[in-house]
Amino acid sequence: MKARNEHAEGFKLRNPLSLYNPYEYPEQLQLKAKDPIHLEWVTACVESQGYRETMEDAYFDKTLPGGRLLGVLDGHGGSEVADYVSARFQILFPQMLEKHKTHRLFSKEKYNIHQALEETCFVIQNEIIEKSEFNHMGCTAVICYIEQSTNCIYTATLGDSEANIYRNIEGKYWSIPISCIRDWGSWPDELRAAIATRGEYKKPIVDYWEKEGITSRHRRIHQKLGGAPSENFNVGCNVSRAFGDQINNIGRLFNTVVTKPKLDRCYLLPGDIIVLACDGLRECIEEDVIVNCVKASADKLASQISHNLVDLAIRSGSNDNVTVLTVKIK
Q1: Where does the pLDDT of residue 29 fall: very low under 50, low under 70, confident under 90, or very high at 90 and above?
Q2: Helical pair 287-297 and 2-14, crossing angle rounded to 10 deg
Q3: Which segments of the chain are extended strands (E)?
Q4: Bigger pLDDT: 9 vs 220
Q5: pLDDT tens across 73-119, in order?
Q6: What pTM was computed for the model?
Q7: Most buried of 167, 187, 311, 316 (most Cβ within 10 A)?
Q8: What is the residue range of 295's domain?
């Protein structure tokens, strides 16, 4: 619900005249199956280097005994940290699941999945810190685990990569955000990021964005429409939650970039379409456009949905790498 509210409010600020907010799904929208059902899924990922000189994204899609582990990683400063996290998460997370068994006799929830996700992130970050060659690199991440026994999807988010469920209710598609993306309008994240990029906290710049109703994640859309010039805002570090980026923490009293993921859980239903994507997807397009694209492709293969979204992002002017991982629930 927190993720839904923050996304809905952000959409309102950016589109005050829009009559349709894709995040404001009806309160009666069914969020959980009435009876236990067995779900199956099909996954497909499409990635594009786009107009960048190098490809710095990574992804993984791994079947585990009790479910499916998925992730999209958006590297910056190089691809090495994203590749490292992708490889290590697939190895460490199953171990953390076993470590965090709940031992509840009559519960379908056999593991403390949130704790397993969080600890996996912390262990990997500690490994990265030990590798000085990674000091100037990092990556954002959106990582999901679908638990077969409960039909739940658990999400861990670091930075501005994110995941959404697209659900058809009475012929209309709605976007259910399952990543908590707190832009720099959030004071704690804003403060850490400001110190990381400028060495100090310059509130007038943040006041400008707040006054204009523009979050950091959408400032590039604002600039394309004639907003504040980019030189008014130092973008050396665009996130305050990520793997790596140790150079921003060395010699500081507190970490300006942290690796504590934002966690979320949601029940899945037949017909749901889940999309995990780096921020290149939403660099120049709003969520209502993405919803329409998913709706138009809903009867197609998961690979075609991913392809259509990547193509939409590039045609709309994205200058970033674009990676989209789609899951169709049956």
Answers
A1: low
A2: 110
A3: 41-48, 57-64, 67-76, 138-147, 152-158, 162-169, 172-177, 243-244, 262-267, 273-277, 322-329
A4: 9
A5: 999 999 999 999 999 999 999 999 999 987 666 666 688 999 999 99
A6: 0.81
A7: 167
A8: 2-184+256-329
Provide the b/e sequence for 319-328 (b: ≥16 CB within 10 Å): ebbbbbbbbb
Give the 3-state secondary structure of residue 26. coil
Q: Is residue 317 part of a domain?
A: yes
- Measured CA to CA, the distance from residue 226 to residue 103 in angstroms comes to 57
For residue 20, give every residue at least 6 positions away whose Cβ sits within 8 Å of its Cβ, in sequence order, or none.
Answer: 288
Q: How far apart are CA 218 and CA 10, in angstroms?
A: 10
Phi, psi of 242 (to 5 degrees): -170, 165
Mean pLDDT over residues 17-45, rounded? 77
Give the tokens for residue 50: 């786009």
Which residues are CB-neighbours of 133 under 8 A, at least 6 positions away? Answer: 80
Largest CA-CA distance found in the chain, in angstroms, rounded: 60
In a domain, 306, yes or no: yes
Tokens of 180: 């908590």
DSSP 103: -
Tell whether 325 is covered by a domain: yes
* Both structure tokens of 52: 């960048």
Give the separation between CA 232 and CA 271, rounded to whole angstroms.
Answer: 45
φ, ψ for residue 218, nearest 5 deg? -115, 15
Nearest to 264 by CA among 179, 201, 329, 196: 179
**Integer Cα distance of 298 and 293 in angstroms:** 9
Q: What is the domain count for the chain?
A: 1
Decide if 170 is inside a domain.
yes
What average pLDDT does this structure show over 194-220? 47
Listed in sequence order, the residues at least 6 apart from 203 whose beta carbon sits closer than 8 Å to its beta carbon are none
> How many residues are there in the chain?
330
Encoding tokens for residue 301?
């293969």
Express each pLDDT in 171-186 by its tens digit: 899 999 999 765 444 4
